[in-house]
Amino acid sequence: MTGVQTCALPIVSQSRYRTPSYATRIAISQMIGDGWGMETGWGLQVNEISDNEHKIPVINWLDQTFSLHEEDSHYNESNKVRGMKNEAIFTMDLRTFVEKYTDAKLLV
Questions:
Q1: With contact defined as beta carbons under 8 Å apart, do 43 and 51 qualify?
Q2: d(CA 10, CA 40)
Q3: Could you report the average pLDDT of every consecutive run of 10 residues in the chain (108 residues)?
Q4: DSSP states of 40-98 as a string?
Q5: Residue 47 has what pLDDT?
Q6: Which residues contact 76 (CB under 8 A, 6 or more apart)?
Q7: How far apart are CA 41 and CA 38, in angstroms?
Q8: Fewest 10 Å CB contacts: which of 9, 34, 85, 104?
Q9: Given this model, what pLDDT does residue 11 score?
Q10: pTM (2 decimals)?
Q11: DSSP 3-state assignment of 39?
């Protein structure tokens, strides 16, 4: 997901959003879709951002929040994640984010 585009998180999987390992797998699978065999197009990193030209989405599964961050210098050691500013552009409740940006309709 680059910036805030259509949400890749399926609403039908919301019961798994509180289990970080399952939620991460669901989100990554939804974002990549059929692109698993492609040599380029996606990269995943943990605790450091290196090859990036987009805003950085952060999902906190335990707090159930979505935040969007700007990239920053790798030399700024005050950042929690190298290459990403600590302060979010915005943060919102994960359910609200999914409802706002998904293509699917929410069944309640």
A1: yes
A2: 24
A3: 47 70 81 81 71 81 90 86 89 87 58
A4: SS----SSB--S--S-EEEEETTTTEEEEEEE--TT-TTSSBBTEEEEEEEEEEHHHHH
A5: 67
A6: none
A7: 7
A8: 34
A9: 53
A10: 0.68
A11: coil
